[in-house]
Amino acid sequence: MKARIKINFLLIVIMMTNIISLSQTKNNNPFGLVYQNAIAENVKGEVNIHPITYKLNGIDISANVYTPANYDPSKSYAAIVVAHPNGGVKEQVAGLYAQRLAELGFITIAADASYQGASGGEPRNVDKPTNRIEDIREWQII
User: Is 48-141 a domain of CATH 3.40.50.920?
Assistant: First the structure.
């Protein structure tokens, strides 16, 4: 009985080690996107991603602009700002929604909020409602 418990315990440890290892595997997406079917390269005639940076209140903000398939800069498009949840970054849920909305014909922007992700600002990982409102207002101007 004790030997069987030891074997089961060892199997569980091995499985957990594999799960942890898989979850820590470096993402190979060149844009850092972590969701399934994320854009891995810009292809003419498909939705494309354009990483940008800009200044907001002296802080460098990192963003991704998604353009619809067959984007024509001479045409007008509706635009949607996609904000990430607390603790998130533009490469996660916000990027997924931005990409899917671009597939529907919108120009979208997903940016890391001030003090978070690839955006600048100290102290890190601060999420104040007033900062987030300023971020979103600025994203709509870009």
Answer: no
